[in-house]
């Protein structure tokens, strides 16, 4: 059962990372978030970081007993950092004079 959930989560993380790459490259944001994302490139960096960190956590978490806990914890921290970046992308940037 764990591998079914991990596979579904992995597909979601790949889609999130792909949306992040699209936001960085072309400033394209998913349609349901276009109204409240003011900085699409920052949102894309956060989505890419969430996708990579979440995948690292989910796929290396079950192997933490043999490889140590450092990589899954680093993946979780990267996921949390991506969420922070996505939250910052909701706020407008500062004005340049």
Give a topology summary.
Layout: H1 2-26, H2 40-60, H3 64-67, H4 70-88
What assembly state would you assign to the polypeptide chains in this entry?
A: single chain
Protein structure class: mainly alpha
Strand content: under 5%
Biggest sheet features:
none
Mean pLDDT: 87
List how many beta strands DSSP finds: 0
Given the structure, what is the number of helices? Answer: 4
Reading the helices and strands in chain order gives HHHH
Rg = 15 Å
What overall geometry do the principal axes of the alpha carbons give?
elongated
Provide a descriptive summary of the structure in words.
The protein has 97 residues and is mainly alpha-helical. It contains four helices and no strands. Helix 1 (2-26) runs antiparallel to helix 2. The protein is elongated. The model has no long low-confidence stretch (mean pLDDT 87).
Short overview:
The protein has 97 residues and is an all-alpha fold.
What descriptive keywords fit this protein?
97 residues, 0% strand, elongated
């Amino acid at each position: 059962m764990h591998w079914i959930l991990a596979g579904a989560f992995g597909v979601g993380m790949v889609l999130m990372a792909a949306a992040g790459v699209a936001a960085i490259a072309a400033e394209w944001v998913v349609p349901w978030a276009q109204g409240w994302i003011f900085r699409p490139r920052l949102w894309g960096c956060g989505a890419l970081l969430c996708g990579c960190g979440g995948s690292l956590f989910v796929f290396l978490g079950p192997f933490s007993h043999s490889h140590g806990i450092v990589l899954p914890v680093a993946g979780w921290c990267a996921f949390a950092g991506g969420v922070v970046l996505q939250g910052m992308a909701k706020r407008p940037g500062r004005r340049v004079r």
